[in-house]
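To start, one record:
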Amino acid sequence: MKKIMWMMFLIGVLLSCSNSKQGHSKKTVDEQEQVIDAHNARNSLDYQGTYTGIIPGDDGKTMNISIALTESEYVLRITPLKENEETTIKEGKYTWDKSGSVITLIGVKGIPSKYFVAENQLRQLDKDGKQYVGENAANYILRMHWN
């Protein structure tokens, strides 16, 4: 009888040790997820620079767009790809959304002003702030221009 009690005691100790290791492992995974969630375009990418691309406009006109970003300011150049139309230049500050992945060009009116910041590119967002999808999605990407 003492042997049976002793065996049950040992089994109980072993089971409690394995449970505490699993709890420790779970906590470590949660901590890693919190660290991963802290990374975003704003604090993880080299986003400052000049982005260019040819983007279709809402009115059917195609435009050559260039956006130069510094730490907090932008210079936007819009050149319609139609003869006799002049380049429009707008300058100002931009803001980041809460996720740290989308910038909004302040003071831009009449054209989209929100861009998703990705590795070496800006993706123009639609009027609802959503990324374009489907086969035309690539038409709304500005690529980093390397000097």
